[in-house]
UniProtKB/TrEMBL annotation:
This is histidine kinase. It comes from Natrialba swarupiae. Residues 387-414 form a coiled coil. One of its GO terms (molecular function) is phosphorelay sensor kinase activity. It comes from the Archaea. InterPro entries: CheY-like_superfamily (IPR011006), HATPase_C_sf (IPR036890), HATPase_dom (IPR003594), His_kinase_dom (IPR005467), HisK_dim/P_dom (IPR003661), HisK_dim/P_sf (IPR036097), PAC (IPR001610), PAS (IPR000014). Residues 1-22 are annotated as: Disordered.
Amino acid sequence: MTPFHSSVRRTTTPIDSLPHDSSGFVESPTVLLVDDDEAFIQLVADYLEDEHGFETVTVTRPTAALDHLEDDETVDCVVSDYQMPDADGLAFLEMITEAYPSLPFVMFAGQGSEAVASRAIRQGADDYLQKDTGDARYDLLANRIRHCVTIARQRRQLDELYDAIEDAGHAIFVTDETGQITYANPTMSDLSGYEKSELLGETPALLQSGEHDDAFYEGLWETIRNGEVWHGEVINERKDGTQYVIDQTISPITDGRSTDGYVAINRDVTERKEREQELERFRSAVKHAGHGVLITDVDATIEYANEAFEEITGYAASEVVGETPAMLNSGEHDDAFYEELWETILEGGVWHGEVINQRKDGSHFAVDQTIAPITDRDGDIDGFVAINRDVSQLKAYRAELEAQNERLEQYGETVAHDLRNPLTLLEGDLENLAHVAKTADDDVESATVLEACSNLSETVDRMRELIDDLLTMAEQGQLVLDPEPVSLEATAEDAWRQVDAADASLAIEETTVEADPARLRELLSNLFRNAVEHAGADVDVRVGPLERVAGFYVEDDGPGIAPDDRETVLERGYTTDESGTGFGLAIVDQIANAHGLTVSVTEGSTGGARFEFRPADAHQRH
């Protein structure tokens, strides 16, 4: 076999010698029928569609046919009459061959037009058939159309094959009918590591890597020996033992009757496969990343969202693909915010900042967001990737810390205020004692000294009680970070045992509360002591869940709390007992706030005081 060269010439093999191809491509071709006899051409079209499964388009003028071809690339064959108003069939044929040289053309003209037939064939018509009516004539036309379309397809295949061979960028080798290599181009040598002299006379088995089984190669050879083109990916091995991946097309070389050999075009896709594997690893990492990842095109249309994004936003990936990130806008940022963001990334920069977005359920969440451009090989931006770290909980912690700092400042002010009065009394008692000692003529009477010491002791006890309550306030006001399911009944019973109230009673309706057990017990014991102090030693106390909303209540059957005082009873220092510090209910409020609960004071079922505790975002029970 003569070696192939880059200047391969197109074949001039007669059409009738090419192998017949009865693939699905020609079983239902699309045919453009051109004839000024509307009734006749519609009759032909209906027959071709009903009896042969063709797709047909009918027009009555060549100019209309040309207009249709400009808009429709699916036409496989043109069938035309000869005598028509604005141009005869030969003039129309000339227009078609000039504009669409590879489109088959069949002249379907009236009888007695042999001269026209001869001219049509010389001008490039693929076939000529005398016009007549009847099934036999229409069947013959259908067969001629199939034949022409089949030949056109084969010509296109040959053109594609020649174009591939002439593409010096691909590795090409040619074998004889037994599979021995007769030609290999320089690219093939570079790719495999073998010189051209080392490949000649060998078979492609020289390049086998062991990655494919016998069935793989048996299927390949069966395809090409049947005269068909084989295409697929092959892992081969170079002379130095390293592997490479090729996208391979193998076509038979035929003279129309027998196969003389085979030509293989190999495109090296090793780097592409490595990139695909790297991309697959990246996709796997992104899919399971802890941060929400969003990929958009250059117009911000969402193309991909990972599982973490779904969890953060509440949207399924299928709901956001095709949309833009604007669907998450919460209204918390003005236009200037987004304009600055887009200006940064469209200029190729990376934008980083905190964004308040809106979930599918309407709630807001905060993300620490980084947006970076995705560029192609030329450096042009063709998309963006956004990585979102949900910082909503972190912001809540930060807000709580700020609130605690504010409370600490208030504690300091409270300490200064509440200790100033007893300190003033202490200073006065000390000055009085010193004055007595200085002004006495004789020894100071012991009774006088004891009285002064008693006053001092009471003041010191008062200060100690204030300090203990202030420390409790500071401790109980800390945010509960890890609440757990707690039995309200068991906790209330523990708290009740801390109260000295032998004649009082406690009734509990069981429920479960998310809380810190020790701090919930402190909250309940303070409420129980408050009930005993204000409602009497025989008070009846009830504890249970709220109706229709999450939360619980504590109520007694005492005199209750006047409506005007319900807003202030929880404030620090509020007390109706001269000996009290006014911190008991304030501590209750602190513990509730630390759990994310709000406290409301109302009237109980028997007229006493009722304290209700519910989450700040309490929802209606169903």
